[in-house]
## 1
Amino acid sequence: MKYLLPLFLFASALLLAPAQAQPMASDNKMARPLGEVLNRVEQQFGVRFKYNVDTTGLVLNYADSRIRPYSLDETLRNILSVFDFKAWDQGKGIYKIKPYEYPRRYDEDGEKMVNYLNTLYSNKEEWEARRVALRREVRERLGIDPLLEKCVPVQPILGKMRRYDGYMVQNIALETLPGYYVCGSIYLPNNKIAKKAVATRDGRYPVIICPNGHWADGRYNRDLQVRFATLARMGAICISYDTFGWGESELQVGKDAHQSSLAHTYQALCGERLLDYALTRRDVDAARVGANGGSGGGTHAVLLATIDDRFTALCPVASVCSHFDGGCPCESGMPIQYSQGGTCNIELAATFAPKPMRLIGDDGDWTHTYPTIEEPYVRRIYGFYGAEDQLSVFFEENGRHDFKIKKRIAVYSFFMDVWSLPTECMNEELATIEAYDKLFSFGGAQDAEGRWYPTGETAPANFETNVKNLVEQNFDQEGKQLYFDLRWAAGLEEKADEWTASLNLGDAQKAKRVRGYIFDHLKAVTKWHNEHPGQTTVPHGINPRTGERLRPVDLDIIADGAQPRAYHDSIMAQLRRELTEEQVEQVLDKYTIGKVAFTMKGYHDIVPEMTAEEDSVCLTYLKEAREAAIDYKSMKEISEIFGIAKDKCELYFNTHGRNWRQMYSDYVKKRRAEKN
Ligand code: ZN
């Protein structure tokens, strides 16, 4: 049903274009500026809106018809969904209006989700069938196996050992895919008490793989260093490593690569390879393997434990729940959440049952629903095994989204319970906070062209610094498709950079904003295009103009034409706010590879003594087409949009004393004669 309207509009455009010499005054569709409509809703319902979106220039059709006097929720849904926005209740009558976020849902949706999941299994057998299928499909959807096959054998580059009070730290760089390294630090126990209490007879300690979230400074963050040091003093080896595009990984793939689905897979791959390495060490006990991290690091701890049975203890902090998949593509970029018809992070965490798990949450972030939604849900599953005692939940009241002392103590006490770590070694004050560069394996500097290169003594010769190569060299056709996102993002970035540079704005801040607007728009349009292929999402029908079946490009135009209007309205409003009209036109010409000027030149060549009026009419049609065409992804589609404008121009000639066919054939003859 969704596509009937655009189908109709497009069909009408095809049908009407030749017959309609002048643009018709259109129905105003009861349109009103979005900002004005929302002001009215504020008054009517006595609420206040805060904006995370730009409503400048956005117009809402049939505005008043969307208001439901009896329901603010329905009213907001009707209004905001048009622009792909969502409202979030902040309490005290304040609502925040944000862009739609695919990984984030309302608390009620989380509750509905676990209620639904609970209907799928009511005993251990039913649950295990789901669990096995889920774990297998998550692994597949993550696309990690083809990459693991391409990884080079484990050969760690280890740095000098640094000795502190009761523990040691050593940096590690491990080559994963050829030429790409995961860099991190290993925190090792080094005291008699821990050795006696924790090590096996042959000197093996438990190990904890510690993926990191998006805390300021990544793994160099103070809260994180304290935790790794303290756990190591207590007898657990901790391996902390850079997330994709952060820390030393930035040297190889750049910062922006983090915002890609590739980060999701690659980070999991780093955790897997570091565990592979850990299990080759003589001081690691393969029977005691933990995963622990906070926020995005918690999401990854759960992901690792979901795809790998070697983990025996799991402790995600301020992360997984039923209504949020993790807001970064490194947590939710690959479509693992749609496994087995739809899952959520808390179900993935539950697949760890009956092994020991502690969930750590607080009332200040999205884990605030632990007591009401997630804990009862996971407890039921542990109950299938009679293993409720293996699940514990620490919930911080008056807390916030952090990894501060209360949560760290909850982590220490969990691993104390599971592995009998000695309480007397738990003393954060004895942890040494190291400077950034001490934690670097290679360290880096930039060359004259801004490219990074490693500077450390141990820096390898094959150190790659191009993320595009990583994708091109390591993914098969299917994999490449999966990682299309990253490749197009890189290509779109280049476009946004180049187009912005061509404006010579001379104001770095302004250029940065303009580049951002163009990049976001290109990304939105391309993403829509990729997710709505005309061939499969649009009913195949007849083109009323030609009487022939709709061609693939027609289907694509119809599918792309259904994208939210806000994509177009936002970029135009943003460009017009920042740029002169002439500069806006330059940007539009970039989108459409100069088709307006090119086509106009053609008319001037073909039409003898073209009049100023003819020039102006054609230019108007072509400029309309140019602005419409920026929302279409492929050059084929853009050419089709211009084709409709060209039909209109030619019709204008024909209805104003000219004969287009004759002029064109004269022109072709003339050109031929010139050639001969
Ligand atoms: Zn991330």
## 2
Amino acid sequence: MIIIKNSVELAAMRRVNQMTARVRDQLAAMIRPGITTLDLGNAAFELIRSMGGTSAFYGYHGYPGQICVSVNEEVVHGIPGRRVIKDGDIVSIDTGISFEGFVGDTAVTVAAGEIDAERKRLLEVTQAALEAGIAKAIAGNRLGDISHAIQTVVEAAGFSVVREFVGHGIGRDMHEDPQVPNFGKPGRGPKLKPGMTLAIEPMVNIGGPQVEVLDDNWTAVTKDGHPSAHFEHTVAVGIMEPEILTLA
Ligand code: MF3
Ligand code: CO
Ligand code: CO
């Protein structure tokens, strides 16, 4: 069942998602060669606490981190730890915050130092795919319109869409109905209505779409070891245009 948010609930979603966007951007600004993924996790803990929120990830199905930090071939759900970020890496930060009973969720992938041309294109294409998906988050469209728009941008660029992980409804819970795949057919799926809030989050691989989960039971990596990128915004379905709740 897809939960429609009323104006009071939407106001709370705006507040928590704005907080989440601020933390995302402050963490992204820290990324440079030499820091560890745990440095980012520790900074996230302090930033989130200073704003009066809590991590929406910590303890979720036993997840042990404050945020997810996924480097290069890591697709999603990298646990902050000893990994040292090097020049030329791409680093995805996924931040989730709980505040006033609602959840914000957003991710960005950024370059550490100088990255090669193909990685640059991966970041541009993944962000463009997210924007194309968001543009379809308008009342009267169908969920498949979002999915198809994302897939079209990714595959036109010669990259591949990860299938095992998808976007999602979000509100009082981080993961609500519906699932929002990054692939699909236009005109299919539930009709979008004002007050639906969705986390749209393409995960895009330079190589093949296959992923596997490491022995830590969380970190998803590409099977072929090629890099992957992840961008995510939480949006509210609008009448005339989508409202991006996690815009900076
Ligand atoms: N934020 C992720 C998502 O975009 C989920 C993180 S799972 C957790 O859906 F276990 F790390 F919380
Ligand atoms: Co997320
Ligand atoms: Co999400």
## 3
Amino acid sequence: MATVTQKPKQAKAPNIRQTQLLIDGEWVDAVSGKTFATINPATEEKIADVAEGDKADIDRAVKAARKAFETGPWSKMDARDRGRLMNKLADLVEANLEELAALETLDNGKPISDSRAADLPLVIDCLRYYAGWADKIHGETIPVRGNFFSYTLREPLGVVGQIIPWNFPLLMVAWKWGPALAAGCTIVMKPAEQTPLSCLRMAELAMEAGFPPGVINIVPGYGPTAGAALVEHPDVDKIAFTGEHRTAQLIMTNAAQTLKRLTFELGGKSPNVIFADADLDAAVAGAEFGLFFNQGQCCCAGSRVFVQQDVHEKFVEKLVSRASNRKLGDPFDPETTQGPQVDEAQFSKILSYIEKGRQGGAECLTGGERFGDKGFYVQPTVFNNVTDDMEIATDEIFGPVMSILPFKDVDEVVERSNKSMFGLAAAVWTRDVGKAHHFAKSVRAGTIWVNCYDVFDAAAPFGGFKMSGIGRELGEAALANYTELKTVTMSLD
Ligand code: ADP
């Protein structure tokens, strides 16, 4: 009997249910009454007006979070019950997967097939992973000198401010909420101004799951206003930030006054290294995915593709064929593999880097232009014979622009891989186990992928060396970002 493979459904734009601020369990307008427009990057049309939070709203949200942390039901809740609430939220996200995936695609522009198969499943998995941690966070007993009993407690850090970017709007919510809620903190979150909608819908689901008022507060708004107010607020214990390193530098300066705990997950210029002994087809597919996934808008995008000389020509030929066959178009079409960039600012920045690449003498093998005449689409672009000092090889472009750099041997490529202020991720493609381990040990980056790229798991820590960040997200490591260690010593005399 012949099997019929059904084409995945064309997705529909969802109804927008929530555009207000969430403070103390209530949906409210901004104190100023102001709103800002969120734009569909595929059509450049307005999707909705969203309440624009500012200092006054941040202050209300922080007060609510403080009250919930100190005196509310959350502060007295058994850890296991916190975990149950988190699992309930994960179930609700799963039950509403289609709607959330469509919202993500509408606001961010990412292909619906990615929202459905990557973003949402990772969100659900992350929430369930941290739900399991809620009742497993504990201290140790310590054999101190003398007749004393000494032990540590890992207490929730307090009120945490979480500032997230637009490239994986919901996944960043899950990465931030997961460890914070498991640890027993309360949250004031500022989603990115480009993509507030899915975060607001997820907060609605959190209310439905039964999180007490004030535990999760959401204040959409702009960075220099709402974001800065959160960073400077004296009653916020910590800022967890994901975004550009320049913004992190500003946050660090502004947080100094109140000595806030800070964790940063920042940018990168990650090397993806292909040795001549690699499975070339797998490496080509990995290089394409490692850079073009999510329109190149990944902090860990493999944007410096180092290819060993012996296979350089063959690699380039195969890669260009794959890149030029990517399917750009309506992100709601399940066959689309590349959507628009998130907004006009990113779109223009990427096109200006392409121009710099050309002027700097790199050879543009495919792409290099806008795609179509509506929406912020950029053609998949591949530059060959790029040298280490060109701007396209040093700066984070955050778009579908690949630089291919030929190399001769291991020592050279390790040195060149490390020649960056960033150190978020790196990948190596080889069949030689020794070479893979040598590379993994020698390259200064927080994640090393061997014969794969962008493999994420809620259990595996992620974060940067050097200017790519401070601290680690995901895994057990992230819990340290949301707890304070307390030592208790008792006389036994
Ligand atoms: P991107 O260029 O990817 O938008 P940003 O670092 O500018 O990266 O933005 C990431 C997040 O940081 C967004 O939510 C943004 O609003 C916020 N942000 C921007 N500037 C500031 C600031 N001065 N203080 C606090 N948050 C900020």
## 4
Amino acid sequence: MNAKILLLPGDGIGPEVTAQAEKLIRAVGDIYGLSLTIEEALIGGAALDATGEPLPADTLAKCAEADAVVLGAVGGPKWDNPDASKRPEQGLLDLRKALKLFANLRPVRLHPALASISPLKAEHIENVDMMVVRELTGGSYFGDKLEGDDEASDAYSYTRREIERVVKIAADMARSRYGRVTMIDKANVLATSRLWRKVSGEIMAASYPDVAYETMLVDAAAMHIVANPSRFNVIVTENMFGDILTDEASVLVGSMGMLPSASLGEGKAGLYEPIHGSAPDIAGRGLANPFGMLASVGMMFDYSLGMREVARQIELAIWNAVSTQQCTLDIGGNLRTDEAADAVINQLSDIHTKKVAFI
Ligand code: NAD
Ligand code: IPM
Ligand code: MN
């Protein structure tokens, strides 16, 4: 196989964790004998500074040609002026929209060694293993905006088709996990949520009678995610709710730095990024946890490159690094970003040569 991978490091800790992704991808290429082409392009604040655009045309063209795109993070205080006409984050939103990546998969699984890192009681979080499917190209993020000095508005809409396609992805996922779908909305207030409830109920009844299905209001869901997280299996929800609930869910597994994501559309091409941001408070100090990024690379091998076994071994390598406390400060280790990534690469090579299995 010859796959083309594009790296978009972005801002803050983005380049720090993307450098680890590149190392892992090259190591996978060597270990498994794959021919992988890696390129890099600008996005976010780095692109704004260099070209005046957060998503330069050249970057978008390279993304469209790639089999998979790996993104660090965008944004930071330097570009946070509320009066600025262009923001780094817009580059990421435009990219998701242009590549039609409507489904954002965010797995949340607790490594037992990290139960004590979470501020929640260990007995409340054991067995946490959920998949949040976040709609990514609709809702309040993409409606018309009015931005005045005395009034502002964000229009907010969803179509049946936008809801159907993402609910189907969640339901398929639940079926393969022998799980249940929880659709989270605010149907007691929002018209868009009432459409979500109607359309998802119809699809589940018509095409997935074998998959358990429930609905939940988002305010109650925010409570249940911390009070009783292991009750969730697959969550499907609109763009903004999915954004917020997954930052909340990261607390269950120890750190924002642990959670990966895959953004997918109709085809195989995808965008892979950790769920965290550019973390300006720790940028440039070697403190960033690279595991969410490395796990995103794992998802890339599965979903875009069709190599599930490689993905599984990357997951196992991260798991083993955590088991042996070879990790960054945020999850109780004392390694720097690059050392933690090296530990994963060493574990991967041991797994490949069958020296080590599951620790
Ligand atoms: P953030 O996710 O950057 O950071 C939140 C907290 O989590 C911080 O205390 C940070 O130190 C910690 N954290 C995040 N990633 C970590 C890691 N890998 N290892 C250890 N700790 C980590 O959120 P924020 O501070 O609200 O946002 C900062 C900037 O990032 C903003 O400009 C925001 O728009 C942007 N952002 C970008 C993305 C993205 O590019 N996908 C996602 C979220 C936020
Ligand atoms: C994320 C981020 C983005 C989002 C921002 C930076 C646009 O928070 O990927 O979770 O809200 O989708
Ligand atoms: Mn977010």
